[in-house]
Amino acid sequence: QVQLVESGGGSVPAGSSHTLSCTSTDPIDSTYCMAWFRQAPGKDREEVATIYTDGGRTYYGDSVKGRFTISLDNNENTVVLQMNSLRPEDTAMYYCAADLNPSGCHLPIDFPYWGQGAQVTVSS
After folding, report:
1. Which of 9, 20, 44, 88 has its CA 20 to 30 A from that of 116?
2. What is the pLDDT of residue 19?
């Protein structure tokens, strides 16, 4: 059973940078893909970024493309989300997710393992 723990949530001003981390109890290279999703109140859970652990191919949602970067630290079993040029509309609960088997890797239903979430609030 993979367990994921997010860290780094907080309140930041618009235009600033912030980093979220997600540590896995299992080696990162035992997963097929890992992702960050976010969910704001009253909205659906939205894919932010996905990384395929074999090769490092990445995918970003349109709303964060060019501002956010997802990366892996295999030594620390951690996936990192670097967020730059933050906007108030980036305010949400951010969730880390992992999938062990080849699948779509883009929809919430594709991911059987989830962290508890980290709140990011961006003030204008």
Report:
1. 88
2. 98
For residue 106, CA distances in Å to 6, 47, 50, 102, 115 come to 19, 7, 7, 11, 16
Regions of the chain short of the pLDDT cut 50: none
pLDDT of residue 109: 94
How, if at all, do strands 118-123 and 92-99 pair?
A: antiparallel
**Burial of residue 50, with CB atoms counted within 10 A of its CB: 0-12 exposed, 13-18 middle, 19 or more buried:** buried
What is the structure's pLDDT at 120? Answer: 98
Residue 71: name the closest of 52, 86, 87, 92 by CA.
52
